[in-house]
Design goal:
Elements (H helix, E strand, L loop, with lengths): L3 E6 L2 E6 L4 H7 L23 E4 L2 E4 L10 E3 L3 H17 L14 H8 L16 E2 L5 E4 L8 H8 L6 E4 L6 E4 L25 E3 L12 H4 L4 H9 L1
Parallel strand pairs: 1-5
Antiparallel strand pairs: 1-2, 3-4, 3-5, 6-7, 7-10, 8-9
Bound molecules: iron/sulfur cluster and FE2/S2 (inorganic) cluster.
The site of iron/sulfur cluster (SF4) has 13 residues, from helix 4.
Length: 237
């Protein structure tokens, strides 16, 4: 049986069980810690650092850091807001994110975090990289311009679909998502029912013919800010 213990986040005491990460325990207590590369059902990777919290005064990623008895966690502070905003801004300038035209607009976790943090325009210069689009598959396309290298597709294809359709190649600014075929996505074993297709937090992997199906005003983050589903759970308890 799991051992229960307590620790605090922003001076609120919460209960956790052995094996929980700080993010798991926060979610159960209705405390939202922003995240991008973390997704329920996937092993945490610690790729994006948006979930950075202070643990006993030191920065740690909440999605990978185990909760332990008595730790003092800071989640909402001006300093952490600044760190998270900087990460989000860097992700925007590093790729080509054209939100008003993007099919994922209103359902995109990166865009929703920008709204939540009040980011109107990035304070860094845009890189405007030239990246490939792969629209060869009959049902799915990849637009690498919008990829934030979160590795959710790598883990989802491997762990939820039992395949290995996606992985990274290259280093540094040349790092990009690749597929398990010499030529293109159409040559892979990606199926239209694969769970990986829904795992991308942005508009980098998208189902064809589904674009703009939900009108503006009814999209996921038109109705409620990102994280409010978790915070509502906290309000009920
Ligand atoms: S394609 Fe999507 S899920 Fe895959 S690494 Fe890029 S942003 Fe993440
Ligand atoms: S959500 Fe924790 S590092 Fe990305």
């Amino acid at each position: 049986m799991s051992k229960m213990f307590t620790f605090t986040i922003d001076e609120k005491e919460l209960e956790a069980k052995s094996g929980d990460t700080i993010l798991d325990a926060a979610d159960s207590a209705g405390i939202y810690i922003p995240r991008l590369c973390s997704m329920k059902g996937l092993v945490p990777q610690g790729a994006c650092r948006v979930c950075t919290v202070m643990v006993n005064g030191r920065p740690q990623s909440a999605c990978t850091q185990p909760a332990t008895p008595g730790i003092i966690v800071e989640n909402e502070s001006d300093k952490l807001l600044e760190i998270r905003k900087t990460i989000i801004e860097m992700l925007f300038v590093e790729g080509n994110h054209i939100c008003p035209l993007c099919e994922k607009s209103g359902n995109c976790e990166l865009q929703a975090l920008a709204y939540r943090f009040g980011i109107v325009a990035p304070s860094f210069p845009f890189f405007f990289p030239k990246r490939e689009i792969d629209a060869t598959h009959p049902d799915v396309f990849i637009d690498r311009n919008r990829c934030i290298l979160c590795a959710r597709c790598v883990r989802a294809s491997r762990d939820l679909d039992g395949k290995h359709v996606f992985d990274f190649v290259g280093r540094g600014s040349e790092r990009k998502i690749a597929v398990n075929a010499k030529t293109s996505l159409s040559e892979t074993n990606l199926g239209s029912a694969d769970k990986v297709i829904e795992s991308c937090p942005v508009g980098a992997i998208l189902r064809k013919r589904d674009a703009y199906a939900v009108p503006i005003g009814s999209r996921l983050y038109d109705k409620q800010p990102i994280g409010s589903d978790i915070e509502k759970k906290g309000a009920r308890s």
